[in-house]
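Input/output pair, single chain:
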Amino acid sequence: MADHHVRRIAVFGATGNQGWLCSGGSVAKLLLAYPQQYAVRAVTRNPDSPGAKSLENLGAEIVKADLTVPADLPPVLEGCWGVFGVTNFYDAKIKDDPGSEEVQGKNLVKAALETGVQCFVWSTLPSSREISGGKFVSKIYEGIFPFGKYILEPPSETPQLLGKYKVDAYIREVGLPASFLYTGNFYENMVLRGHMRYDSDSDSLEFRQPIIRPDTKCTYVAMLYVEEDLSAITKAVFDQWDTKKKDLNHEYLYCADARIAPAEITSCVKRITGKECVYTVLPTTGVSDRDIMFQLYNHQSMYGNKEIPDPNVLALGVKLHGIEDFVRKRLLPHLGI
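Output:
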């Protein structure tokens, strides 16, 4: 059992279908490396999953709970000083019912407030409708439902917008102590989604990605090495909350090291490997709302004119990792090069 100097952190998203090394999994793994500071309670719907077992072997406490079941959450958060909260659009419970993402987030916020959580780190997204001026509206960002799917006050006769970003306003409304994390597009998608491929016969690589154009200026997308940097930023917030709460509370931290076009990624791979690397634009992701998200990237820079890397992240002392770090440490070993 952790002593009274150790702060217990409940980590959500630690064993999801993106792999336990991403998102909440990366946060849990890093915190577990500091047992003198943190005890990790990894929350999952499936305690018997490989991801859960891997974290348990590293010292995490594994507990079962479902964000769609409000009664599950207060017992899980009891005794927790902090929470890393995240929802996953590609989870079937959200993909088939996008309004559930906001509902799940608010369920978690209510439980955190009820149990006295002192530091809530919430992984979120902005409104695609707002940042595109209504041109691109993706359920990944906000969710759209026919009248009657969810009952809002006051009732509406128009399609209802319910999204992860609305949880941000709810956190402020109820006064839960929290920081908001805006994440960049994941470098890890080159591995997890098979976007980068190596052909041994031709000794060349192909970067295959849907919709995003190779080098148009507005397609420069804020990129994030999740396994290294999301975890480091989250830990930095927990580490410095007592001394920097005034600066961090209800503020956004942009988790990305740079804005990078696909052509810059292929150039980096060529330089490091000495092998040819071409970029192929695929017509679709296979998920209509992800297509809309990528079309948004084609028409305007992700997160507008925000300075990337975020000076507020750098002020926390976080050393961010870029495309070259990812290629050398993660991509090439994955491809067997």
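The first strand starts at residue 7 and ends at 11. The chain has 13 helices and 15 strands.
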